[in-house]
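Record GntR-family transcriptional regulator, 255 aa.
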Amino acid sequence: MPGPGPNGATAAVTRSTLRQQIADALRDEVLAGRLVPGQAFTVKQIAEQYGVSATPVREALVDLSAQGLLDCDQHRGFKVRHFTAADYRAMVESRSLVLDGVIRHAERRGHTGTQAVAMVAVRRRADEAARAARCGDLDIHIGYDLRFWHELGSLLSNPYISDFLHRLRMQAWVFAVPHLRADAERRRWLWSGHEELVDAMTLGDLTAARAVIEAHHDRALAWLDHLGHPDTSPRAQAPAGPPPPRPDHGERRER
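=>
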């Protein structure tokens, strides 16, 4: 049987690209807190919002469900997943255990250093993430923080572990964003140790790297304790549908 012709191939690529664009846009909305936990919507609503067909929208929403950001109800559509304080604590503890294992594995195999060239891009993410944290710029910080950890994880571990940790970090941000956005003093809690971690990794000092990561996780748990009982605190009322599309200013937030 002959394969698809040029037009069919182009259509497939276009649909795949559109699927990714929609998934990226909705992920940004969730991580920014504009799509709030519990907010429900249908494939039809999203398709109408973006002026596209239902197929790439359905595929994008399934992708986000697989990442743990959305819940899918066969009869009611999709909604942003609501994570509890217990969920967040488990995420941080899981990250801590896995990263500690990754570093110990690297030590046992004698992989105590990383290539300087490979660390250049990671260093740029580290600088931007740390700067945004010190300024309290939550949106910029989240984008660079996610990119920093994903790229660093790709250097330190295999793709399965790296992707697992990336999903955990995205889910943790979904829980944290509404609370941090409501906190005028969030600069106290946004972690800015990215540059210190890069320095330790570049020098091959995995003991120092482990200490930086442990301090990061301790800070996350201290922030959670600071919230008191976040799952019973007032939350924004989830609107009936997704917000209107925002204009594209030509520069997407880093992921």
